[in-house]
Amino acid sequence: MSAPALHPDLAAALEAAFPGRPVTDVTPLSGGFSGATLLAFAVDGAPYVAKRCAPDPTDPGRFAREAACMRAASERGVAPRLRHADARAGVTIMDRIAGTPLRPTRDPALLGRVAAALRRLHDGPPFPRGPSRMDFLRSLDAQCAALAGAGAGLPAELVRTADALERVSGPHAHAAPCHRDVNPNNVLVAADRVYLVDWTTAGAGDPFVDVAQLGVFAYPRPEQREALLEAYLGRPASDDDRARARVARAIALAYYAAGFFVAAARFGGPPPAGEEPRPLAEVLAAFGAAPERTHPGTVAAALLREMRREAQDVSRGRP
User: Fold this and answer.
1) Is 241 in contact with 231 (CB distance < 8 Å)?
2) What whole-number distance in Å separates Cα of residue 272 and Cα of residue 148?
């Protein structure tokens, strides 16, 4: 089988990073919802990944910010080593990690390793600021409306609740360098350490939201999230910590619900007529076992249902 034809920007980046050296074993990888082009390849037997994204007119500084964040994170040992970055072309080249995506587990040792990786990231040098989470949510709302037609964007309740939650978390909005999309597929567990990948949305942010994002899919049970929070803090959680974590969880649920509503509009259409929102734990169990048989609209509705419950607890002042 012949190697896939390379976009000129990718070919130029490979030559800049590895001048005059043969590139072998070129293999396309899935770019996920982002639509990025991902290629695995090898040079002198060493494995690498190249990523190319189309320009985003709504966020012209994204590529430069992503590269800066990834470079800083790699120096902290929580991201693959960055070998080349071209902000104009939107191309990055990094080491390919021999690891596996994080999957739900009750292993306390792994939980501790993941928490330590987040702590190391958040204790590092500051990241540049990017668009706010509400800016990102409005972008998803516009995408959903364009895909669904007739102006049917995200549920108004979701946007309204997210806006209210962001006001509560405002003092922490730029508190630390953050990944800002810590879902299990972006966490690679290797023999020597835990790495975070896909730094597309990285920037200054609220570190508790990073922790909460991880808890949505990888640590769905309350006792798991409590253990994750305490491992991250390195001490027992206080009531103030738990209150802040609850706000962060509601925010994380809102944004992942929005992502699945967009996925439903793009790939699946509306969920089956008359289907009632199901408990999140039940839906996540089915999604983890057979994601291709779980309608994205079903996941979105379950996330929205859980967001509603958490937001109500926030409004009642529950720690």
Assistant:
1) no
2) 16
Residues contacting residue 32 through CB under 8 Å, at least 6 positions apart: 185, 198
Cβ atoms within 10 A of the Cβ of 12, count? 14
- In the chain the domains, ranked by start, together with CATH numbers, are 8-96 (3.30.200.20), 101-315 (3.90.1200.10)
98 versus 316: the higher-pLDDT residue is: 98
- What tens digit of pLDDT does each residue of 130-179 get? 999 999 999 999 999 988 776 689 999 999 999 999 999 999 989 999 99
- Ranking 170-174, 178-182, 207-211 by mean pLDDT, the lowest is 170-174
Mean per-residue pLDDT of the chain: 91
Q: Calculate mean pLDDT across residues 224-231.
A: 97
Say what the pTM is: 0.92
